[in-house]
Amino acid sequence: MELVSSSRSVLPRCGGGGVAGIAAAPFRTASASSRRKGTSGFVCALGCDGEGKKSVAEGTVRRRAALALLLASPAMSVAFSAHGKTKSRNPYDERRLLQQNKKIQEANRAPDDFPNFIREGFEVKVVTSDNYITRDSGLLYEDIKVGTGNSPKDGQQVIFHYVGYNESGRRIDSTYIQGSPAKIRLGNKTLVPGFEEGIRDMKPGGKRRIIIPPELGPPVGPSTFFSAKQFEVFDIELLAVQDCQRRTIAFYSDVVCS
């Protein structure tokens, strides 16, 4: 009401009794008082020549007052400022994410030269040194030490040590801790596809670090060790390659590798 009365004071007044029929409730008391005093007390926005024009003028004043209150509201100013800050921020600052990954890897006691994985939505950027080689399948590897001899073939048994890490550098498995190396025959699909691809062209005595993308990684589900699609890192040491032969004794048959 204070904003409306303030607007009335700056608008022209008009005399006469032709405007006594205005139906706006907030102005009835003022108009009756003005008639008793013999003065004109009604707002005239467009020349005081009809009830319709005066109603339009009153509606205009009220809308302007409501708009002024809305724009002056603290809630609106806070919302506008917060919206501006959100648009100017970059949630995928690569440098900031690299520093954050380094701190997590240090807490997990990852190797010093461990690769970094920067996630931006559904995409993952792998940050490694220039020593890594990327194959067409998406597998990345670095030869730490090249062995000697022949690489394993399908049907042969490989004896190797390995240490497995997740993206944050946390160790998930290790044959060194278990106290004995792993023994697997190649070609029977018992290894993770990326792991078998990475060890297939190694030579005995060699050491290699491989980075397995999700497409070549282990299956994901409640019955497996892995609960999400992510990159896996393995440090592999190939100890030996053995030939295997099937042995049959009476009704018993097995495979012997030596």
Radius of gyration from the alpha-carbon trace, in angstroms: 41 Å
Q: How many H/I helical runs?
A: 7
Secondary structure tally: strands: 11
The N- and C-terminal alpha carbons lie at a distance of 100 Å
Mean pLDDT: 76
Tell me the helix content: 25-40%
Structural class, from secondary structure content? alpha+beta
List the helices and strands in order: HHHHHEEEEEEHEHEEEE
Sketch the major β-sheet: 7 strands, antiparallel
Mass-distribution shape:
elongated
Strand content: 15-25%
Low-pLDDT residue intervals, each spanning 5 or more residues: 1-48, 77-89
Highlighted features:
258 residues, alpha+beta, two-stranded antiparallel sheet, 7 helices, 11 strands, elongated, disordered N terminus
Structural account:
31% of the residues lie in helices and 25% in strands. It is elongated and about 115 Å long. The protein has helices at 2-9, 28-37, 51-71, 74-88, 94-107, 175-178, 193-200, and strands at residues 116-120, 123-127, 133-134, 140-145, 157-165, 171-174, 182-185, 207-212, 232-242, 244-249, 252-257. By secondary structure, the protein is of the alpha+beta class. Strand 1 (116-120) and strand 2 (123-127) form a beta hairpin. It is built from 7 helices and 11 strands. Strands 3, 4, 5, 6, 7, 8 and 9 form a 7-stranded antiparallel beta sheet that branches. A two-stranded antiparallel sheet has the order 1-2. A two-stranded antiparallel ribbon has the order 10-11.
Brief overview, please?
The chain is of the alpha+beta class and 258 residues long.
